[in-house]
Design a protein that fits this description.
- Keywords: Signal.
- The longest helix has 16 residues, at about 110-125.
- It contains nine helices and 16 strands.
- The strands form four sheets. Strands 1, 6, 8, 9, 10, 12 and 16 form a seven-stranded antiparallel beta sheet that branches. Strands 2-3-4-15 form a four-stranded parallel beta sheet.
- It is elongated, with a radius of gyration of 25 Å.
- It has two domains: about 1-15 and about 155-255 and about 325-350, no CATH class; about 45-145 and about 280-325, no CATH class.
- The chain is about 25% helix and about 30% strand.
- Helix 3 packs parallel to helix 5 and helix 5 (about 110-125) runs parallel beside helix 7.
- It is an alpha+beta fold.
Length: about 350
C-alpha cells in the first residue's frame, strides 16, 4: 500500500470543518425565516431588513464624517435598506504608504470611533440598518500584541531525505522554528516531477509551476516524536527496504503566522497603532481577541447603543488569511478525542509543499 504526497490545499477545508463542527453543533441557528416572514413588508413596500444594501468601503478614519452622513441619507432616498460597512484600509495591502497616518486614523482609534458613531447615527436618522465588518479588510483580525496566543497559527513542515541503510544523528529538521507537533519517517517508493505553464489571466505565460509527487509506503509511516531529546537531536537507523531507496525524516511545527489584516501606522508606539493581525479562527482564544477589542475600542461612546437599535450583523466578509496550513494549538487533542488516534503521525500528508 502506498500514499501519495502532493499539494493538498483541500486539507485546509477539512481542518476547518473538524474544529468548527464541534463549536457549532450545540448552537442551532436563529430561525431567521420566521423573522423575515413577519418583518418583510410588502412587494410594493419591502421592509428595510429585506431591501438591498450598499457595501460601503471606508478608506480609513480620515474621511469627512459629514460626507458619510450625506452618503447614507442618499442611499436611503433611493430605496435601499442600509449599508454594509467594510473597513477597507488598503484591504491588507503591503505595498505603498497609506494616504493618512493610521496611528491617528487606524481601525479602533478615537477617529474611527467618531466615524462609526456618525454612520450609526445617520442610519438611525434615515430609518435604515447597518452591518459592520469585524475588523479592517475582511474582518479577519484586529489590533493586538504581536505575540498574543489568540492570533492565527500556521502548521509548517521541514524535512530531509535519508538513504536506506543509513543512520541519522543530529537535530530534527527545522528544530526551534515553532512548537513541535510531531516527527515522522516514511519510506519513499517513487517520485515524479511535474511542470505546467503559469498563465497570467489564463492566457499569458509567466514561467512555470513545478512540483513533485512522492509515493510513500503507508506501512512504513512511523511516529518517532518520543525519541526526540530535549536539545532537539534524534538518532535513527533507516533500514534497507524492499522497494524504497530512501526515507523522509519529517518534522511538523505550529507557530503564530503573523499574517496582517492591516499594516501599521507611521512610527507605531503601541499595539493600537501597529496595524491588525489575523486571529485564530478555530479557538475561543481567537474569538475573545476580537470581542475584547471591539468592546474596549469600537463599541464605545454611544456606538454600542446605536447598533443595538439599528445594527443587523457584525460579520467577517471572508477568511482571507495567508497560511501554509491553518492550525490551532488544540487541534491535535481535539482530533484525538474525536477519532481515537493522533494526527501527528499523518502531518506530512497535510502539508502543501515538500
Amino acid at each position: 500500500m502506498f500514499l501519495q504526497l502532493t499539494m493538498f490545499s483541500s486539507f485546509k477545508f477539512l481542518l476547518i470543518c473538524l474544529v468548527t463542527l464541534r463549536t457549532t453543533a450545540a448552537h442551532p441557528a436563529t430561525d431567521e425565516h420566521n423573522y423575515y416572514k413577519n418583518n418583510r413588508g410588502t412587494f410594493q413596500n419591502p421592509a428595510k431588513d429585506v431591501r438591498p444594501k450598499f457595501r460601503y468601503w471606508l478608506p480609513d478614519a480620515s474621511v469627512d464624517p459629514a460626507g458619510i452622513a450625506a452618503d447614507i441619507k442618499d442611499i436611503g432616498s433611493i430605496g435601499a435598506g442600509g449599508i454594509e460597512m467594510c473597513n477597507y484600509f488598503m484591504y491588507g495591502g503591503q505595498i505603498g504608504e497609506p494616504a493618512s497616518d493610521w496611528s491617528t486614523y487606524g481601525f479602533g482609534t478615537p477617529a474611527y470611533n467618531k466615524i462609526l458613531n456618525t454612520a450609526a447615527q445617520a442610519t438611525k436618522d434615515n430609518d435604515l440598518v447597518i452591518d459592520l465588518a469585524l475588523g479592517p479588510e475582511s474582518g479577519q483580525g484586529v489590533p493586538a500584541e504581536w505575540d498574543n496566543p489568540g492570533l492565527a497559527y500556521d502548521l509548517i513542515s521541514h524535512n530531509i531525505k535519508v538513504s536506506a541503510g543509513d543512520t541519522y544523528k543530529g537535530k530534527v529538521p527545522g528544530y526551534g522554528n515553532g512548537t513541535l507537533l510531531s516527527v515522522t519517517t516514511a519510506a519513499i517508493l517513487h517520485s515524479e516531477n511535474y511542470s505546467t505553464p503559469n498563465l497570467v489571466v489564463g492566457l499569458i505565460p509567466n514561467g512555470f509551476i513545478n512540483w513533485t509527487v512522492w509515493n510513500i509506503s503507508a506501512d512504513s509511516l512511523n511516529d518517532v516524536t518520543s525519541r526526540v531529546r530535549p536539545d532537539g537531536t534524534i538518532s535513527l537507523e533507516f533500514p534497507q527496504h524492499q522497494t524504497a531507496k530512501g526515507y523522509f525524516l519529517w518534522a511538523s511545527y505550529f507557530k503564530l503566522s503573523s499574517d496582517r489584516a492591516a499594516i501599521p501606522g507611521s512610527s507605531p508606539q503601541n499595539f493600537l497603532q501597529n496595524g491588525s493581525f489575523a486571529v485564530d479562527h478555530f479557538s475561543t482564544r481567537g474569538a475573545k481577541v476580537t470581542t475584547d477589542f471591539l468592546e474596549k475600542y469600537v463599541l464605545i461612546n454611544g456606538v454600542k447603543e446605536l447598533f443595538q437599535q439599528v445594527g443587523k450583523y457584525i460579520w467577517e466578509d471572508s477568511v482571507e488569511i495567508k497560511s501554509s496550513l491553518y492550525w490551532t494549538p488544540d487541534l491535535a487533542s481535539t482530533f484525538k478525542e474525536m477519532h481515537g488516534y493522533d494526527i501527528g503521525k499523518y502531518a506530512m500528508l497535510l502539508a502543501e509543499s515538500y
